[in-house]
Amino acid sequence: MTRRVRRRTCRDRAARGSSRAGSAGVGDEEDAPAAELDWKALPDDTMLQLLARLNYRDRASMAAACRAWRALGSSPCLWSELDLRAHRCDREAASSLAARCESLRRLRLRGHEAVEAVPGLRARGLREVVADGCRGLTDAALAVLAARHEDLERLQIGPDPLERISSDALRQVALCCSKLRRLRLSGLREADAGAIGALARYCPLLEDVAFLDCGAVDEAALADIRSLRFLSVAGCRSLKWATASTSWTQLPSLIAIDVSRTDVPTNAISRLISNSKTLKLICTLNCISVEEELVQDPSVFSNSKGKLVLTVKSHIFKSVATMFPGVDVNGHEVFNECNWRSSDNIAGDTMTWLEWILSQSLLRIAESNPQGMDDFWLQQGTALLLRLLKSSQEDVQERSATALATFVVMDDESANVDPARSEAVMQNGGIRMLLDLARCSRESAQSEAAKAIANLSVNTRVAKAVADEGGITILTSLAKSMNRLVAEEAAGGLWNLSVGEDHKAAIAVSGGIKALVDLIYRWPAGTDGVLERAAGALANLAADDKCSLEVAKAGGVHALVTLARSCKLEGVLEQAARALANLAAHGDNNDNNAAVGQEAGALEALVQLTGSQNEGVRQEAAGALWNLSFDDRNREAIAAVGGVEALVSLVQQCLNGSEGLQERAAGALWGLSVSEANSIAIGQGGGVAPLLTLARSEVEDVHETAAGALWNLAFYSGNALRIVEEGGVPVLVSICSSSGSKMARFMSALALAYMFDGRMDEVALVGTSSDSSSKSVNVDGARRIAFKHIETFVLTFSDPQMFSVAATSSAPAALSQVAELVFINEAGHLRCSGAEIGRFVAMLRNPSPILRACAAFALLQFTIPGGRHALHHAGLLQKAGAGRVLRAAAAATTASIEAKIFARIVLRNLEQHQSGTST
Questions:
Q1: What are the angstrom distances between the C-alpha of 71 and each of 54, 94, 100, 338?
Q2: d(CA 817, CA 823)
Q3: Global pTM?
Q4: How far apart are CA 871 and CA 880, in angstroms?
């Protein structure tokens, strides 16, 4: 049997010595212990700075330390802004925060439940609400939010569609929030004339409106909002462009329009250019009709009258630079805020709006991943996202990081990333930018940056760059975050980085293994994202021998078994089972195999998982049981908790399953069948027929594993006859003669030798079934076919000239050459019992010269010096008194030259082992 490590498909920073120039005594000062800091004595402004860097929960906890800090912790300057996206925000949480929120002006939320809880904060002076993930938000909840916060100036909810919000809610917002300046909503069912008219009448300051991806928007009514300066209808597919392009030109203050991802025709753009006196900028990113027109006529917007039209075909950086005449703006620095301050307010406001619009549109384009965008992403889209990553607007930074995480992914299921796009991020300095963002104090930015780093790290070259830039240490630190979203994305980054063999040790050195294990203990079973990522990373790390020891030392065995026993989430269960399989895969190198088997409930959980509805879970559970079955105690314990029956059932059910599942199911039965009781139980339980079906597979790994299981089963006469009755001889003969795997051919030959060495004959007289319903078979005919192919198999390892020299020479080198020629490397991993070795010794006395040659060939494989279990096998042969039998076989006149040479090599092997033991 061979263990299989299941993998999911950084270098350490060099220690840098530093020399310092300076006066003597510097080293003494550095070595002196630091003075103890009295935290209570810190100035109030210093404490306020520290408190400002904490999230609201940590801030509240720290403020509870003493009376002075409690007073400071309630300072209005600390509670003017609040970001609750990463935390549960319901009515109870809002009530607990209400005492501190009197001065709250800006609020960021996630989820419609959080929006519904906002009135509980009693923040009557609230000016800005930004919310996402609000698909379930209702008219009533939005109306209450508006009614309780009449001073609201900025309301932004998206990008998830507001499918339950109608024009009624818009009217309520207009009636209640007369100071509204910015309104950005996504995915409304409709924005009818009445609702937009109410905004025009009751919100005289409204200057920024975005109805994104909305079902219906009344184009003409938007012209009534006379204060409008910035308008976006990106993604709206049902607009009447003739009406829109005519009515919007009447807006007296309109500066910029965003019609990206719509079906706007070029003639509508041309009307806006010709008829609007104030319009300066039109965004038309990913507008198919515009792009098709530009392909036909690149000069279609050449007479733009000073108005800027941005398309994916235009050079966006150069185009935007034309907005700043007289200002020297080179290359990508056009988005540097320092260049706006010397210009007028309109230019600054326009650039602020443009950054938001670009980040929004680029993310949407990345999510839909339309055809034909590769040139755009490689030539300027990547650089544009990286430039936006430096924006002073927090949501632009975060959305750009999300877009970087999204646009490189080609296939979510297989975690494929586009190599050119991911390397474009790296080549433009994006790795350092993302790592810098990940180190900022804002948890929302940390999670988005970590997500981008994780996705980019699927590319091995980028993963190396991440590691070289210190990314492993940063991700390990983020994995310790008490913010679940941050910890989840950081664990995802470590998961992808841990695929690389060069990075495993660096993750361990950075404390990543302990951090990942702690994540499993910290978060409840319902948080599938963080648990799956943590378990997946541990599974990759456990594939490394040294790291597997660290996983066990950190409590990883107990944590993973706990997941396997109690978690109900399929992705988590699959990764937990894979991690346990890899922990058990190192055999004699460490004690993890036994440790997993001895962990309470581990074997029962894995046996139960073989019956999962999810194929991936079944596959990894079977792989874990396969690896665990190498330990004698585990093998019997697996059987004791129903493992034989469960795996026989699995192998019966997986005949139409994936190759991986078939291999692992057969492998688990192979491992269990080492035991006599298990082998007999497998045969009696119906395991022979499905194993023979798998042995017919054209997939080498599958039929090799099935051949191994059949070899073990054939050791017992009842099973041997079942194999014959089920038509197994032609199957094994086919493998023996045509498989591309030497191991498969070897094990099928041994199975045939077991079946026809004479022990089955007595059983064949009565059959295998107590009710005498055995199938009629021609044992003699099957024996002749088997012997013919066993002989052919052995002869494939024969070189007549080399064997002739070895037969006549007494020089050790001649035998060594033959041994090197015939040795099957993988056979060195096979471990035989005393009974099996005894059976091969008995075969050396068999009247059949073919069986004698086969037995000598097998013993040669099992005793080659350097083989994993060669010393064990040599000891068994010595106990069995095999020396005399081998010498007789080597001298027999009726034996083939191959049998004689093989027997001599086995004798030489025994002498070498005995000599090595004595020294």
A1: 16, 20, 11, 38
A2: 10
A3: 0.87
A4: 14
